[in-house]
Specification:
Length: 77
């Protein structure tokens, strides 16, 4: 199956999607419980937690896009 060139895009897409699904399904409940704890302390703490979580998710998404788009240009000597 791995030698069929036309299927590689779908195999890698499926594998990457499953990896993200498993990682996010484990991470989201933890993020929710952290937000609930922050809400007990007040809205300022909750806003800080929300900002950090959103920044982390956006930075991770941008990093994956960057490496997917420009990974072939990265050279280590």
């Amino acid at each position: 199956l791995g030698s069929v060139e036309s299927l590689l895009r779908y195999i890698f897409g499926f594998s990457g999607g499953m990896f993200l699904y498993i990682a996010l399904s484990c991470m989201m409940p933890e993020m929710k419980s952290t937000m609930d704890e922050a809400l007990e302390n007040g809205y300022v703490d909750a806003f800080l937690v929300l900002s950090l979580q959103t920044t982390g998710l956006a930075l991770g998404t941008f990093s994956m896009f960057f490496f997917a788009r420009y990974g072939d240009l990265i050279k280590f000597s």
